[in-house]
Amino acid sequence: MAALVLAGGAVAQNAPTTGGGFSLPENPNFFVKNDPNYRKATVVVNGEIITGTDIDQRVALLVAASGGKIDDEELKRLKLQVLRNLMDETLQIQEAAAQKIEVEPEEIEQTYTRIAGQNFGQDPKAMEAYLTKIGSSPASLKRQIRGELSWQRLLRRNVQPFVNVSDDEVREVLKRMQDSKGTEEYRVGEIFLSATAENREAVLANATRIVEQLRQGGSFVGYARQFSEASTASVGGDLGWVRLGQLPAELGTALQSLQTGQLAGPIEIRGGFSIVALIDKRQVLTADPRDAVLSLKQLSISFPPGTTEAQATAKARAFADAVRAARGCGTVDAIAQQQGAEVVTNDQIKARDLPGPLQNLVLGMTLGEVTPPFGSIQDGVRVLMLCGRDDPKDATAPNFEQIQGQIEDERVNKRAQAYLRDLRRDAVIDYD
After folding, report:
1. Entry pTM
2. Are 92 and 153 in contact (CB under 8 A)?
3. 360 CB neighbour count, 10 Å cutoff
4. Residue 95: pLDDT band by 50, 70, 90 thresholds?
5. pLDDT tens across 202-232, in order?
């Protein structure tokens, strides 16, 4: 009887609440406390082992992408997140294998080589040395590539054929684009974290910590690849060029207030939270002046050690006066020789590839004009002279197939999330 009384008292003190169909006490009494140090080094997902080394090598990629600026508490959280990612990746690879979908080693190597060139500017052997140096490994990155390719092929076979986009839908989008000519469109990066009513607070806290890391210099692409649950994770979260009407209203509102290079979030949308970064913006179906191809000559002078600021200012002023007196680019070399300046010519540089403050300045110049001198005593002083400019043609609208593909991708992404939830629910997981 005493036991019954105690049990009844416990229930009375912790009145149950309902959430997601469960009846849960507000302040549960735990009979056994979890020891966070008790968790073993390996996790077995449907018979396949994920080791502590697997986790550490994947975490090393994120740490390197963030410049090593991750404290111990954040590192613990990253390890848990990476473990969840590896578990999902394992389920995706296993499901592809069960469906007789194979990814050949040659394909993985091709993707690995492409990543080496695009993201590291190195050949594969140099990237292998880099990965080893930061505590990761080529095998870890190749496994991630295998997971992404396996999942993409699985979706193409089991999901994409059942996603229908009518011709009328595509034509409606094309019409809206023509009607929107001249309005702004945005190139957006997104990290999406799904959430339910039950785990909303935990996901929000996770998203907030990701934003903090990004603001401290973390790599958006790196975090998107490891954390985002959208299909764009494999391309670093890049949504491509979109108009505000194509995005949830909450994201559109946030993007309008951003400058290029800024990020916002976490933003609650249907199904979870998004973190967005504004990569670039332009006007719909309108030529972007920043795509103009320029021919520039750069003249630069340097200062010997010990030069004072007053001496540098005087020399820079004389240098600028001499360059302004030039009669077009044909006289630049002679003036450079007189001033002891170096000349560098680039006939194929886009205005958008110049540093932000110089873009509008150069685009406002006419042939033969020069920028004001810029630089420092340490780096020297330089000016740019505009020698030629080829303006871009008006942008063309995406074609029918491109629009259709974009709508399909959005719908496939929603079904992919449900597919992965089913795989998680049916998985047999042992903490060994």
Report:
1. 0.53
2. no
3. 12
4. very high
5. 889 889 988 988 888 888 888 888 888 887 8
Q: What residue type is 63 in one-letter code?
A: V
- In the sheet that 263-269 helps form, which strands lie side by side, from edge to edge? 238-242, 184-194, 272-283, 263-269
Residue 342: per-residue pLDDT: 84
CA 408 to chain centre: 21
Check if the beta carbon of residue 389 is closer than 8 Å to that of residue 293: yes
Q: Which amino acid is at 120?
A: F
- Measured in whole angstroms, the distance separating CA 233 from the mean position of its chain's CA atoms is 8
pLDDT at 401 over 70: yes
Residue 187's φ and ψ, nearest 5 degrees, are -95, 120
Domains of the chain, earliest start first: 1-33 (no CATH), 43-158 (1.10.4030.10), 184-283 (3.10.50.40), 289-390 (3.10.50.40)
User: Rounded to 5 degrees, what are φ and ψ at 95?
Assistant: -65, -40
Q: Which pair of tokens denotes residue 346?
A: 């680039």
Q: Rounded CA gap, 430 and 107, in Å?
A: 32
Pair 339, 319: CB distance under 8 Å = yes
Q: Quick check: 70 and 82 in contact, CB under 8 A?
A: no
**264: which 2 tokens?**
């916002």
For residue 114, how far is the Cα from the chain centroid? 17
> DSSP H helical segments within 325-365, as ranges?
332-339, 356-363
